[in-house]
Amino acid sequence: ASLNFGVIIPNHSATNQTVGGDSSFSEIFREDDIYAASEFPPYPILINEIRFRPDNQAGGPISPTLPKVQFNMSTTAAKPDQLDATFDQNIGADNTVIFNGSLNLRTGFITLTNGTKAFDLRVPLQTKFAYYPSQGNLLLDFRNFDGSIPSEPNFINNVGGADGTSRMFTSNPNGTSGLTDSGGYVLQIVYALLQVRPVISLQSTNRPATL
Questions:
Q1: 112, 117, 122, 123 alpha-carbon torsion, rounded to 10°
Q2: Cα-based torsion angle of the residue sequence 65, 48, 33, 101 in order, rounded to the nearest 10 degrees
Q3: Short-list 102, 149, 119, 134, CA closest to 49
Q4: How many CB atoms lie within 10 A of CB 206?
Q5: What is the band of 54 on the pLDDT scale with cuts at 50, 70, 90?
Q6: pLDDT band at 2, cuts 50/70/90?
Q7: Which of 81, 102, 108, 118 might form a disulfide with 166, Cβ 3.0–4.6 angstroms?
Q8: Are 145 and 71 in contact, with CB atoms under 8 Å apart?
Q9: How far is CA 147 from CA 24, 69, 128, 195, in A?
Q10: In the chain, which ranges are E strands?
């Protein structure tokens, strides 16, 4: 069994919950959120779950069902606050569907000792994603095809500002272009260390030795 770790991105949100609920989980929507590689550990990771945090102004506990959603992850050369207005221009070559189908989200609105809400809105990945921070930033593409049942307005915590994340969005889940701003989902990413094979970066050469 692998040992799991967790990282909160943007990292300042670990102790600072900016008020700002996001409606994309309750409405028909498409959103791309980018996270700077500097927000992650400096080594390859295998992402196996993502967790969202409820907004601190929403009411709860709640248990909405999203009948049809799709999450993708990819490694991108795009940068926060510099996303192209066309979705395909931001998505990386390793684009992977990590979840597709019906999703039930449960949150107890548990307040932690630092005043923020617990990350208890869980999305276990159907396909794990191998992420190499040295190769680019992380892009999360989310499509909500049917909204949520019941409709729970603005219950996902969102953050804005120059903090290593930004986003683009549209009310069309199959849209090809959208609007951009400096907001983004606050995530807790659950991961395991990615086992990589050792490589020879410098070939050995003959060298004289004095006996």
A1: -130
A2: -30
A3: 119
A4: 4
A5: very high
A6: low
A7: 81
A8: no
A9: 8, 9, 25, 38
A10: 4-9, 21-22, 29-35, 45-52, 65-76, 96-104, 121-131, 137-144, 156-159, 165-170, 179-181, 184-185, 187-193
